[in-house]
Amino acid sequence: MELAHHAPPGPAEMLRRIDGLRSRDDWGAIVALADRLPSELDAAWEPVAGEIAFALGQRKRFGEAIAILERCFAIVPAPRRASALAYLHYAALLEAASPERRRGAWGDRGRGERDAHGRETLEKGFRRWIGVALDLSPASIKDLYRLGVFEAQIESAHDKVALRAFLAAIRAFEALPGDEREARGDLRKAYVRSLYAAARSALRLGQAPLARRLSFACVREDQDRDYLEPVHKLGQAAKVCLATGEIDLAERAARKAIDAKGPPRRDHLYGVLAEVARRRGLHDDGVTWIERNVPAHRRSAALFRQLGDLHRDAGRADAALAAWRSSLDRDRAGKHLTLVRIGRLLRAQGQLKEAERALRDALDFRRRKYLSDDPAALGELAALLETRGRIDEARQVGLRLARCGKPAEARREGVA
Could you read off the pLDDT of 243-290 as tens digits, one per residue? Predict the structure, then answer.
């Protein structure tokens, strides 16, 4: 009888224990049960292993969770297991994207496991398992949404591919029966977030009418639930309205966003209101929106660049240059945008040597950072070289510009 009392619990008993622990969100206790898993899983133990893998994921021990869940999929190759494996890779990538969170993302096995499961391995793992999940369930709303986020954010603005995934998720939700759409809050949440993310990608791609339709649908569909923070939904609507030229609507949405629930930082919204003022020709009002509401130490590079634009348009060249140079001090991604502005202004002032230096710095930065030429900088540089009588050099720069597929006179939007 004593031997029977101390016999290890079977899978049914383990599931009962896990059910009680899960009701208390005691993930650590569930993780501790991993040592009780048999070395060879079978169909009876597969649900237990799946629960332990879920708990490991909750504790951000992604490597161990993936290893266990792969064993589960080998036994039960179900869509939900493939989806979960894709999610674990996705969650690990999001965690690793934040430098302060990298420590511990692969559990207690230390640096060796983190090295073995580097970013490239995670990306390949995500692509593999999201492909399997969508092969098994092509209309999976959550998987389509995660694929879109992967392309738009983790893979650095692959917006064409991301937009296709988000739109597929939207269509899949809208094709559900009405009662299921109402009952499945988890799917509605993915739907609302797909609307928001699709609008963002469409806006980046210059598809303003589509971005407007998606953004407004997001606000409408989420008004009673707040699956997204209101400040984000309304702020995006304001940007979309700027893109469509609906200035009054942009101002109204930005003002509502400033007063809406959500994270306290609202600096970018004052940038939207400053842009509204600029488009109305009220440059001093635009400066005031930024300077009165966003202290200098908190201004982003983009806000300083915008402040410089407002000063430039108001005819204050020295103030514009000062703001743009402050932008350069803070910028890691858009220095070329600011350098082209500086080069253009210096050229207009007749400071051709300094203007040329700024434009060449813009080209060098764009080449180092993005491995491509900046058409606006090339257009300005070609014109400047012609002014200086360096016709052969201007012609060579013009050839580089032609290879960019842009007209010889680079569009001003290229430096926005």
Answer: 999 999 999 999 999 999 999 889 999 999 999 999 999 999 999 999
Radius of gyration of the chain (CA): 27
Does residue 327 have a pLDDT over 50?
yes
Is 52 in contact with 31 (CB distance < 8 Å)? yes
Select from 278, 287, 267, 285 the least CA-distant residue to 242: 278
Could you identify the residue written with the tokens 């502005």? 341
Torsion of Cα atoms, 319 then 324 then 330 then 336, to 10°: 180
Q: 363, 378 in Cβ contact below 8 A?
A: yes
d(CA 374, CA 377): 5
* String of DSSP letters for 222-285: TTTT-SS-HHHHHHHHHHHHHHHT-HHHHHHHHHHHHHSSS-S--HHHHHHHHHHHHHTT-HHH
Q: Are 301 and 327 in contact (CB under 8 A)?
A: yes
Specify the pTM.
0.85
Do 170 and 139 touch, CB atoms closer than 8 A? no
Alpha helices (H) in 150-246, listed in sequence order? 159-174, 178-183, 185-204, 208-221, 230-244
Dist. CA 373–CA 401, nearest whole Å: 8
What is the b/e burial string over 314-334, where b = at least 16 CB atoms within 10 angstroms of the residue's CB? bebeebbbebbebbbebbeeb
> Whats the size of the chain, residue-wise?
416
Whether residue 53 contacts residue 69, with contact meaning beta carbons closer than 8 Å, is answered with: yes
